[in-house]
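FW: tagging you since you asked about this chain on Friday. Here's the raw sequence from the shared folder, copied in full. Didn't touch anything.
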Amino acid sequence: MKEHGVDENWWMSIFDAMYLKTDARSVCDDHLTCQEVDFLEKCLGMRRNWRIVDLCGGQGRHALELARRGFPYIVVFDYSNYLLSVGKGHAVKETLPTSFIRGDARHMGLREGSFDLIMIMGSSFGYFVHEQENNKILSESFRLLRPEGIILLDLPDRSYVVENFKAHISHRVNDQLAVIRERRLERDVIYCRERVLDESGHCLRDNRYCTRLYSQDHIRDVLEQTGFQKIRFQTDFMPRQEKGEFGCMTNRMVVMAKKV
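HL: got it, structure written out here
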């Protein structure tokens, strides 16, 4: 099924080698990753014995940095074979104790009540047009967490996105690649067409995808309905507006909640 030309399963194929090029300024920025992990450690008071899932974690940039800092029990869970293989390669090269599992975040199949922290970083939550599908990820996370376990969501800041929304954004990756994104905002869902052009203007990729935006009240309600409590927010998480237009990664908010 498609809505506004977006296939509901777009996330199954888009995260590949080209994605690592077009989004390198966010997902391959080691300095930014270290800053984000600094925040995680400080804000959550993380302990080295925590069992952690880096959910929808791609190549596991946050998980690998945590492993470098001495966290030995980390699982990267993602659907992309390519990104998981990249992460595995880094883990093997650096002999880091990080596991990589491929699957659907709505049905992970991991043991109930076995994790202390599930984190969904980099605006990787809200990929489904139909909200009940996004909610399944939260329900599955709730199942996997032990009592007092924490879920952390790194989301686009809805207020910032709506107030600063641009229908057309673009950036150059390098001398050979440019990215053009045409966007439409409707009922808190951003529908995006992304084209990647080479130096001659030929289209190398033409993708359509979507991201759901959440206000604080909305995500609080969803988390409470799932069973989470003690919900708190951190706004202006890693703001990057002074460095240019980064789409939904420009200005974000972090939501933390506990399974009590």
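FW: The chain has one domain: 2-157+214-258.
HL: agreed, and Helices lie at 17-22, 24-27, 30-44, 61-68, 81-94, 131-144, 158-163, 216-226.
FW: great, closing this out.
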